[in-house]
Amino acid sequence: SQQGEEDPQALSIQEGENATMNCSYKTSINNLQWYRQNSGRGLVHLILIRSNEREKHSGRLRVTLDTSKKSSSLLITASRAADTASYFCARVTGGGNKLTFGTGTQLKVEL
Amino acid sequence: DTEVTQTPKHLVMGMTNKKSLKCEQHMGHRAMYWYKQKAKKPPELMFVYSYEKLSINESVPSRFSPECPNSSLLNLHLHALQPEDSALYLCASSQAALGAHYNEQFFGPGTRLTVL
Q1: Residue among B99, B103, B111, B110 nearest B28 (CA)
Q2: Which of A78, A90, B17, B55 has the highest count of CB atoms within 10 angstroms of its CB?
Q3: By three-state DSSP, how is residue A29 classified?
Q4: What φ, ψ does residue A92 adopt, rounded to 5°?
């Protein structure tokens, strides 16, 4: 399977804590993206990091990429209950015409 | 308008029914996608349309038939589905097909399909 693996599968934290989720993949990439999905809804693009970048920030989100280890991580700082969602990493495959999603991390932020 | 809309939100159909899912975007995007997502699983690509032409079919059974009438619309025609086809069907669009240039995908809210 070309799916990336994400861990943990599920994460439960208290509001205000940081949440870190990891994504590993097997093939080389041009870039890697992260998406959020609220329960049973469409996905929302969060951030893209290119293969020549090591770290990228967007608001409370910080993404790192280690191409030598074929892994990426998404850090959400000062989490809020509204951050409760599933988070997927995704990368372009199939010669550049397909977006393949990782297995996802279900994050629950409790008040 | 940065929205992708999908209708209907929910659909229940029998195995002998014919129904269609509709997706619309007015962002001028030239690539549109259908995904299938089962509970607690990632979305799985079904079809890609690029400039209104089918460019990728991920070996999807013929009981699913996509159609792109124009650059803003994408349909998925359903016929003789099986209960295991019950899932969330997501439509997405991007500025152009991914190719060598990445484009983020904009997703619709999905159609929750139940096949009885």
Answers
A1: B103
A2: A90
A3: coil
A4: -80, 130
Distance CA B10, CA B21 (A): 10
Q: List chain B residues with CB under 8 Å of A48.
A: 102, 104
Query: Element (H or E) spanning A55, and its range?
Result: strand A55-58
CB atoms within 10 A of CB A66: 11
Amino acid residing at A76: I
Task: Name chain A contacts of B97, Cβ cutoff 8 Å.
Answer: 97
Q: Which residues pair with A34 in a beta bridge?
A: A47, A89
Per-residue pLDDT of chain B (116 residues; tens, 9 = 90+): 669 999 999 999 999 999 999 999 999 999 999 999 999 999 999 999 989 999 989 999 999 999 999 999 999 999 999 999 999 999 999 887 655 456 788 999 999 999 99
Is A30 in contact with B102 (Cβ distance < 8 A)? yes
Contact criterion met (CB < 8 Å) for B107 and A43: yes
